[in-house]
Amino acid sequence: MRAGIIPTLLGTAVTGATLYMNGEDIVKRGKRKRNVESMVASGLLGFGVAHLVLGSINMMKKQ
Prior knowledge:
Blueprint: H1 5-28, H2 36-60
Helix pairs in contact: 1-2
């Protein structure tokens, strides 16, 4: 199995689930709306995107 496939799949799943559940709140979040749910959703989105990027970099490296 190629290196980096698991982090990439994890990042895809987390990013997709976060956007599916809270995508509207993340996009329309204003400066006044600072509830914990939107902050957690933004954190999960960042976690997913980071895994996508790092997994993709790991897959592209020659071994």
